Amino acid sequence: MGDDVSPEAARDPVCQMPVDPALYAFSAVHQGQTYQFCSLTCQQLFEEDPERYLPRQQGGTPR
């Protein structure tokens, strides 16, 4: 794979739920970082507008 796992990968960036990558199969790569999700819905929301869910220092916009 070669993608860096971001510090936020242990937490769903959409709903903030803790995510164990071994238990959840939902993930997306954005700007070389892999993010994990608790559900397909959260993954799809993130993929539609990643900047909405990322911290400002990662180029996200405040909610």
Quick description:
By secondary structure, the protein is of the alpha+beta class. Helices cover 21% and strands 19% of the residues.
Question: What does this protein look like?
Answer:
With 63 residues, this protein is α+β, with helices and mostly antiparallel strands. The chain has one domain. 21% of the residues lie in helices and 19% in strands. It contains two helices and three strands, in the order βββαα. The protein has helices at residues 40-48, 50-53; strands spanning 4-5, 26-30, 33-37. It has a three-stranded mixed beta sheet with strand order 1-3-2. The longest helix has 9 residues, at 40-48. The protein is globular and about 25 Å long. It starts with a strand and ends in a 10-residue tail after the last helix. The relative contact order is 0.21.
Short key terms for the protein model shown above:
single chain, 63 residues, alpha+beta, 21% helix
